[in-house]
Amino acid sequence: MSGKTSEAVALQHIIERLDKFKPRQRWWRRWVKRSAVALILRELNDHIEVLMIKRADREGDPWSGHMAFPGGRMDRDDVTGLRTAIRETEEETGIYLEKAGHCIGRLSDIVSRPHSGRRPMVVTPYVFKLHTAVSIQANHEVAEAVWIPLSFLMDPSQRDTMELRRGKLAMTLPCYHFGKRRIWGMSLKMLDELLSLV
After folding, report:
1. Which domain does 81 fall in, by range?
2. Using CB atoms within 10 A of its CB, is residue 52 exposed (0-12), middle (13-18) or buried (19+)?
3. Domain tally for the chain?
């Protein structure tokens, strides 16, 4: 099977699986801080790619400098998490998802530590497929934006490990190294769930 055919089949399979997929939703999320992110897929040169951003270095930001997906905190005016993902993506990358693509599904809620306070924050990932070419116009929150081929993420030989230290505790965690960029943590959990649908 050619690369083009297999990639196209893979994308259609993701769309079909997402349509039937029942993501885990935290029933208590309405009582805590919430965020939403966008996993944006595009077809380019016979390949499927997902957009990731490297967050700008900012003092006090626990995700400063990390590889992530466009997104952020829900505002009071955001009726749904989907609206948050669309709004934040436009603010951070200049991509207006309602014109450039459409949502093909969502993944499971992830519980994260908040910027402040003791209560956790729930992050909801939404998956989008672009149907038109876009240009990135990153704002001050984004150091760079990069398209990562799904074929790279699906290659077991690209999977690596890293050591994370929290005080005296050392943990070995899975990751990818895409050039000098390291993909791990919440973003990796989201990618793993997405790729499990292929």
Report:
1. 3-195
2. buried
3. 1
pLDDT digits (tens, 9 = 90+) for 82-125: 999 999 999 999 999 999 999 999 999 999 875 556 778 899 99
Closest CA to 73 of 40, 116, 39, 102: 116
* Cβ–Cβ < 8 Å for 8, 98: no
Question: Which stretch of 9-23, 71-85, 108-122, 173-187 has the lowest confidence by average pLDDT?
Answer: 108-122
Give me the CATH number covering residue 111. 3.90.79.10
Share of the chain above pLDDT 70, in %: 91
Q: What is the mean pLDDT of the chain?
A: 89
- Provide the β-strand partners of residue 72: 36
Structure-token match 């690596």, residue found: 160
Provide the residue type at 81 as one letter: G
pTM: 0.90
Q: At residue 47, what is the residue type?
A: H
